[in-house]
């Protein structure tokens, strides 16, 4: 599932007067993402469970492991290092994710009776406060499963986010003339200086670093890096009503783009 972005603000110079003196703290407050507005990535999910093996060619990096329900090593993934995959029944595949030997999250993919809709359900408590979080989404088939493969195999286009825990959707933002603070209900947080150096996203298991800049008075860009490489760029645009944020998520690692809006609470 998508991980809700932690967008930030940055500095901009205006004539001879410091920017901080001219830009009010417009983003300060509590915001909640509206999943009904989500424009999901165009990139398809392509995976297969066949002959006791699970492969995911669209994953970054790609995955190829035994599908016997035991943890298998899979390097290069930011939030987990082992995955356990198994066929639960003819229509459902289960996934368990581990980091350093500890279970962090679990997913299931279930194909509909007509074979054209995939429903994914996930749950996790991999956060600072160990909150139980969950979500449900659907995908539409765009290519069939190979002969002999599990019915949920194939190529799928993201269609709709059905439900996500509030703790994944709600963010508290505090903006000052010099800094921007972002805190999630699950405990992850950071405070960054506008136009300053990258700072840690405290509590994030992937050790994400955050650098921010202000594009204009109503637009903010956040660049996330891991191990010195850009992984995601977020753009927040405050709408004229002051109550709505337009959010764009450019996932440079996965090669996907997502958009949605968030509303002031």
TrEMBL record:
The keyword Signal applies. Keywords: Signal. Residues 126-154 are annotated as: Disordered. This is Uncharacterized protein. Residues 1-21 form the signal peptide. Residues 143-154 have a biased composition (Low complexity). The keyword Signal applies.
């Amino acid at each position: 599932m998508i991980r809700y972005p932690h967008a930030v603000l940055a500095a901009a110079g205006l004539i001879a007067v410091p920017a901080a003196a001219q830009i009010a703290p417009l983003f300060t407050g509590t915001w909640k993402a509206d999943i009904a507005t989500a424009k999901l990535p165009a990139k398809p999910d392509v995976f297969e469970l066949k002959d006791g093996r699970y492969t995911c060619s669209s994953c970054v990096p790609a995955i190829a492991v035994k599908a016997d329900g035991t943890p298998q090593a899979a390097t290069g993934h930011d939030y987990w290092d082992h995955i356990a995959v198994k066929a639960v029944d003819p229509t459902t595949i289960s996934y368990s994710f581990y980091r350093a030997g500890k279970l962090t999250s679990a997913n299931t993919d279930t194909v509909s009776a007509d074979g054209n809709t995939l429903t994914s359900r996930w749950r996790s408590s991999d956060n600072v406060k160990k909150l139980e979080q969950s979500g449900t989404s659907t995908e539409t088939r765009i290519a069939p499963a190979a002969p002999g493969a599990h019915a949920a195999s194939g190529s799928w286009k993201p269609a709709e986010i059905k439900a996500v825990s509030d703790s994944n959707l709600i963010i508290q933002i505090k903006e000052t003339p010099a800094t921007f603070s972002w805190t999630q209900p699950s405990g992850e947080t950071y405070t960054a200086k506008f136009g300053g150096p990258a700072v840690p996203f405290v509590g994030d298991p992937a050790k994400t670093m955050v650098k921010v800049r202000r594009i204009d008075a109503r637009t903010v860009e956040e660049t996330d890096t891991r191990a010195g490489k850009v992984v995601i760029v977020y753009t927040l645009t405050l709408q004229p009503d002051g109550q709505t944020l337009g959010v764009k998520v450019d996932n440079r690692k996965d090669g996907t783009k997502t958009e949605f809006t968030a509303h002031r609470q």
